[in-house]
Every structure is written in C-alpha cells, then in structure tokens.
Records
---
Amino acid sequence: TAVEPGMAAATRPLVRPCPGRIRHFKI
Amino acid sequence: APPGLGLAYRELNCDDPETEQAALVAVDYINNHSSRGYKHTLNQIDKVKVWPRRPMGEVFELEIDTLETTCHVLDPTPVVNCPVRQLKEHAVEGDCDFRVLKQDGQFLVLFAKCHSSPDSAEDVLKVCPGCALLAPLNDTRVVRAVEAALTVVNAGSNGSYFQLLEVTRAQLVPLPPSTYVEFAVAATDCIAKEVTDPAKCNLLAEKQYGFCKATFNEKAVGDAAEVTCTVFQTQPMLLQPQPDTNTPTTGVATAMPIPPSANLPAAAMVVGPLVV
C-alpha cells in the first residue's frame, strides 16, 4: 500500500496531553 | 483476524466533554456503591484511553483523582451539592482506575478500583499551623468521644435507639483540648428511652441512617459532649447507576431538604446541638 509521506501527521487532530484541569486543589 | 487490527485506542483530551461524562459516571458509581466513608467528587482526570469493543461500543480506560467531600455516602445529598473537604480540615484524596463502557450513548461501569489517602501532616500544617490532624479511629480518646456522643444522641432521641455504624473521622484538637469525631448511626427497633441492652436491638427493616458530628471535652466537668446529628430518609440501593445520574439537572431534582421519616417522630430527625 502506498502512503503519502506526512499525510497522517497533517490530518491528525491536535490533542492536548493529559492530565486534565484541576477542579478544586491538588494534594 | 489479522494481527494488529482493533488494538489501537482512540486518543481523547482529558478535558473532552465525552471523557468528563465517563468520569462523572464513574465517580457516581463509587459514591452509589460505597456503604462506608464519604462521597468523593471528581478533581482531575489523569489519563484516558478509548478502546474499541466488539461487537459494538467503546471502553473508556480512565485514571482519575478524586477528593473527599463532607457528605457521608449514606447522605442523599447529590454530590454536586457536597462541599469538598478543605486542606485545613485534613483533606483526603482518591486515586481511581475505571473502565467504562459506552454503548448506544449510554455509559456502564465495568471495573472500578479506588484507593484513598489523607494529605500529609506537613502539607496540612503548612497551610494551617496548629490545625487538628486526623487521628487513628482506634485511639482511646476517639473511642471514648464516640461513646459519649452516642449516649447524648440517644438521650435526646424520643424515638428509636441509634446504633453506631462506623466512625468516619476523628481529630484531636489542641486548643481547647478536645476530640472531634464524625460517625454514622442507624435506627433500631428499640426505643431510646426504654433500652436496657443495646446489643439486643436490631436495625429497622426499612433502614434509617444518620450522621453525627461531635466534640468531646474530657477535661470539662461531667465529660461534656456537644453533638449534632442528621437522620436521612431511607434511600433505595441502586444496582447500577443510570448513565445520566450525574447530570446537574438530576442533582438539582433531588437536592431538597430531607423530609421527616414516617416512622420516627419529627423531634428525632435532627438531634442537637445537645450538651451534657
């Protein structure tokens, strides 16, 4: 299967890394 | 099947509404399936992986941090209305792993494992020097305080004799020297004013739970115990929470004052504060 280089990276949505927001306070 | 197929998980933002929905269902699950301790509230979603599931649906693999609230698990107050235990009160956090199935738009908890731990003494004293730290529940001063408080509760009850269910937290207060305790109780088939042997009392068929806060001062004349209790309306046990039980609308719908029970006199519903 031929794949165009760079295609996957270009179309992948930007996902903010975890962890998520702190709702109260961090112990 | 060819190797490698179906093994990829979907990446999702930890703050994505879909992730949060799964997390709230998961936290709701532990609150509805715990019979001891306090309700917990979602604090932070640490990790999420969404796996495809055959023949249909997706499984959310979640790592979640929770915080203890001041509501006992038997308290029917929706967790959205429960205040988070503050740092100066010696906060407690929960670390949880969940697997939540999403199928046909509905969430179902498949697996739940939580471990709770109190904040360190150093951290508490850093934000509040001189504040009371959590004490071991088997400390003799704690046991004595609970016994004295339970005596006060039953002396003030015009209805059922209340039996101790569990001691949920205790703090040794330095000034004035006293012991602060919180504990859960349950109404029995004995009349408080007439009971001779509490060991022979049985919990009511329709369970009636209560939650008490007490301060016990050993040095005071006559061992003073100041107690405040709230008795809850019987809550039906859910085998599996509905997917939308965590939504604010549901919470508001049930966030109302607890009506008096049919089988207890109104005076017994809220006891205290009483001082002996």
Note: The two ends of chain B are 74 Å apart (CA to CA).
---
Amino acid sequence: TETFVGHQVLRITPTSDEELQVVQELQDLEELQLDFWLEPRGPGYPVDVRVPFPSLQSFKAHLEANGVSYSIMIEDVQALVDNEQTELLRSRRQ
Amino acid sequence: PLSTNTFDYATYHTLDEIYSFMDLLVAENPNLVSKVEIGRSTENRPLYVLKFSKGGTNRPAVWIDTGIHSREWVTQASGVWFAKKIVVDHENDEGLASILDQMDIFLEIVTNPDGFAFTQTQNRMWRKTRSKQSGSVCIGVDPNRNWDAGFGGPGASRNPCSETYHGPYANSEPEVKAIVDFVKSHGNIKAFISIHSYSQLLLYPYGYTRTPVPDQKELHQISEKAVTALSSLYGTNYKYGSIFTTIYQASGSTVDWTYNQGIKYSFTFELRDTGRYGFLLPAKQIVPTAQETWLALKTIMLYTRDHLY
C-alpha cells in the first residue's frame, strides 16, 4: 500500500504569467512525482499540489527562489488518510 | 445492515458495501428500482447502473454518474445518498414525483470500480482506470479525457504516466465504452450529469475549445438556477461556466461528448470543498454535500422535464 508520510499539499496562487510558468515548468519534472489536485489555470487561480516528502525541500526552494508564495493546505497527507481509515473501521464495527 | 434504512450514509464505504447497498435498494423497491449491468471494467468488475422508473418503455431520461475519478470519494458517497433520496421522496416530493411521472433516472454510483477498489487497498490517491499500457510501466487512463470529443487535443496528456493521460484511442477504457454504448442504445437521454470533486464548480461544455456551445446562454441560466438552489441550504459557494473558461482546456471529456451526441443538458459538478481537505473530505461532510447537491440536481431535472426536446 502506498503511504503518504510527510507528503504535503501546497496551495500556490500564481499572481502573474511568469509565476504561472514557474509552476507549469515544475509540472513537467516527472522525477518530483508531483500530484496536481488542482491544475494550473491562470494567474489568480489556486494550484493545489501534493508533494512527496523527498521532493518537498527542493520544490519549496524552487518556489522561494522564484518569489512564488505558497501556503500549506495539508501538513501531512498520511495523517488525514489514517483518520479516514479509522473512521471507516469504526463505522464498520458499528 | 438488514435494510437501507440502517445503512450509514455519513461514512465512506467499500466497493462491496456499495454493491450490497444497491441490491438491498432494488430488493426493497422492486416497482421503482432495478439494476442494469452495462459492461465490465478492465479488471472484470461489473459496471452497475441503477434505473429509477415508474414504467413505460424508453422514456426520456436523466443520467447521473459519480466516481469516474476514483479518489473523489465524496462523489460515490453522494451517489449512494441520491439513490436512497429518490426512493424516499419519489411519492411525497411533488417535484421529484412529477419528474418520475415523465422521465426515468439512471444513476451509476461507481463508474470506475477498479480505481475505487485500488484507492481502498493500495493507493488512496489513485484517480485513473487500471488498464495496462503497452510500452509503458505506467498504469491507467484518465477516464475524463478518453471520450471522443476533441480526443487527444490540448488539455490532455499523451504520456501514460500522467494523471491526465488520454489513453491510446477514444473509448479505449471499457468503463467509458460501456456508457457510450448505453447512451447510444438508449437514444432518449435528455440530461447528462457527471459528478466530480473538488473545487465547487458547476460546469457545462465545451472543454476542448473556447468556442461557446450553441446553447451556452440556456446552459448558463440553468447553472445559475441550480447553483442558487444549492447555495440556499448551507451557503456553499459555487462558481459556474463552461469548462474551458472556468477552469482550463480539457479535451476528451465526458460532457463534451454527451453534448455532441445531442444531449443538450450536459453538466459536470465539482463538489466540496474549495481547498482545505481536497479529496480527503471528512465523512461528516458527506450528507450535507449530498443534500445541497441534490437541490441543484433537482433544479436541472425539473428544467429538463419542462423543456423536453
């Protein structure tokens, strides 16, 4: 089973075409294993991306180096998945 | 549970539990609900559609599907809730009763069962089908890029490892082909609603081109009514518009194909939320999400009933 320990979902809201391009360039880097929950649409629209732990540092550094601000939507994906599983098991027991 | 009255609608369920729910619902309501198998998935799971009908043959119909992207769990859970709602309200809700007096409703709750089973066992974040791609180690096709509408154009990926991979050819996915064949053989579907999550949007064609559909004005008006009804319950804020202008270019999408088949009232929903939990929406939000969405669905179905073509 795939686990998501340390994976974070970041929310990026590009404010310009240049910033949008920075995000779109990252989209093509397969080795980062990025999972776009909300795809890049245009300046002003949020982009949500699940970033695996091994890619997190370099991904954030790249955004910061290009002046692209971001926020953390989900601190640890695995924690939410575990929550969900616990709920599922509890309701099944009931 | 011995009956659909004791079924827990406020939690997520496994594929088997949802299939058992369907059988219970049919057994409890033989004069209203039947189960149709429209095909088999890549891994040979049955593709079940619930039919809600008061009789007649080949009557005008509404199609609703959920779960085409398997990780969007709130959609399958909402589909289960819709099924029960139709049964509970089919006589005492005047609007719904009048819809069923004239039309049938088809509801496919688990449109991508292989992907859904995979999210329950191997990878909660799985979105695509589970078909194998010759020449690639990557698995699966995005079933919302595999339809024969602008297929393979910008707004989908030709890379089998991409989440938006369009597949080797249009309708390559049996989960898509089964719906295509059903829609063509039925021939009298008047509204087609495909339900996704998240980002709280109500979308209509086109996605593959910026060109507005001929019925754009009418679809926009219907969307406004439907979103107003949805928001009236809990104030959930939706945006609406064409796929291309509201989100991005997406080729090979479901409702572009259904619209081009002549099904004028073709819509896609993107349910809760706007970006706190995303695909991991807590189970306690299932019922409120389904309740508010139902108001929008009823608005679209009532409009269709009054504007049959």
Note: Residues 60 and 103 of chain B are 5 Å apart (CA to CA).
